[in-house]
Amino acid sequence: MQYRRLALCALTISFLVPLLSCGNGHSGETYILIAANIKVPYWQSAGAGFAQAASQIGVAYIFQGPDNYDPNGERDSFDGAMQRKPAGVLVSVADPKAMKDSIDKAIAAGVPVITIDSDAPESKRLFFVGTNNYQAGMIGGKRLAQELKGKGNVVVYTMPSQPNLDERMRGYKAALESSPGIKITHIVDIKGDPRVAYDSTNQFLGNDKKEHIDAFVCLEALSGKEVASVLSSYNVKDKTIIAMDTDADTLQWIQKGVIAATISQKPYTMAYVGLQMLDTLHHHPPKTLDSDWAHDTLAPVPAFVDTGSALVDKSNVDSFLAATKSVSGK
């Protein structure tokens, strides 16, 4: 009797092991997240969301890309990822022109590609998951007008090659239409290098008697803390900084009263939701990936998934800092 029980137990185990190892239908799948500047806190948060979704679904994942702002390096990373025959790819596009052909080739090969954070709308990517950047710019512009009381000269730090930053600029300009006394006097391309913001801010302060600057607007995450550092070092308190994103340094400058406000995004959510959508597309693919889904009323995919944005200032900064620590562990 004991022998029969052991034999039955062994038979049951031999039946269950294959079910446990591949019963979820995800055996051998790998999903890839590609971005530039992947060491910055913003992308570390996205990487955490990507990893969490992969763990819950039960798939392998890879997060890769250049450690600095390098659009061509990002394209090379994307092309290299295709050699792995991934089940799907999320990519934040630093330069839409540089990435278009690579994305189109991936789609032609049957690999679903979704853009997050920064889009490549002229490519054949399936859709975009990220911030409504025009709305984010509107939020920042309204707060800027409030801080300046409708009058002042403004410097903007950006990277004009990225469509998401251009959309934020468009939102700022729309918000400032009702404040004609506020002038954007300088637009600085930081080219992905925070030192450009640091050096430029020093120069503007040096020329302040000739051309008074009242505010600094940062459309990307790198420059806000650099501007704050310069103003703090000179004990300058009569200028407004509106930053972007919620890395720990930016939030701490808000606590100190040097940065007036920043606009939060949800990189964790972008990558988390993006992987889930890739997995659905892999297991339930449309008849073809190469289609104009944006103009199809019966499209199986959306055109745009808005993950949201919000204003962060002294009134709510502590809760955002706590959330940052929960992801980074610092």
How are the elements arranged and paired?
Layout: H1 2-22, E1 30-34, H2 41-57, E2 60-64, H3 71-82, E3 88-91, H4 96-108, E4 113-116, E5 128-130, H5 133-148, E6 151-158, H6 163-176, E7 181-189, H7 194-206, E8 215-218, H8 223-233, E9 240-244, H9 248-255, E10 261-264, H10 267-283, E11 304-306, E12 310-312, H11 317-328
Parallel strand pairs: 1-2, 1-3, 3-4, 4-5, 5-11, 6-7, 6-8, 8-9, 9-10
Antiparallel strand pairs: 10-12
Helix pairs in contact: 2-10, 3-4, 5-6, 7-8, 9-11
Written account of the structure:
The protein has 330 residues and is of the alpha/beta class. The protein has two domains: 27-131 and 266-307, Response regulator (Rossmann fold, 3-Layer(aba) Sandwich), CATH 3.40.50; 133-264, Rossmann fold (3-Layer(aba) Sandwich), CATH 3.40.50. 47% of the residues lie in helices and 17% in strands. It has helices at 2-22, 41-57, 71-82, 96-108, 133-148, 163-176, 194-206, 223-233, 248-255, 267-283, 317-328; strands spanning 30-34, 60-64, 88-91, 113-116, 128-130, 151-158, 181-189, 215-218, 240-244, 261-264, 304-306, 310-312. The chain is elongated. Mean pLDDT is 90; it is low at 1-23.
Keywords:
single chain; 330 residues; alpha/beta; six-stranded parallel beta sheet; 11 helices; 17% strand; disordered N terminus
DSSP E strands, number? 12
What name goes with the CATH superfamily of the largest domain? Response regulator
Strand adjacency order, main sheet: 2-1-3-4-5-11
Structural class: alpha/beta
Based on the structure given, which CATH architecture of the largest domain is correct?
Answer: 3-Layer(aba) Sandwich
Q: What is the percentage of strand-forming residues?
A: 15-25%
Ends apart, CA distance between termini: 58 Å
Helix content: 40-55%
In CATH terms, what is the fold-level topology of the largest domain? Rossmann fold
Helical element count?
A: 11
Shape: elongated
CATH class category label of the largest domain: Alpha Beta
Sheet with most strands:
6 strands, parallel
- C-alpha Rg (nearest Å): 23 Å
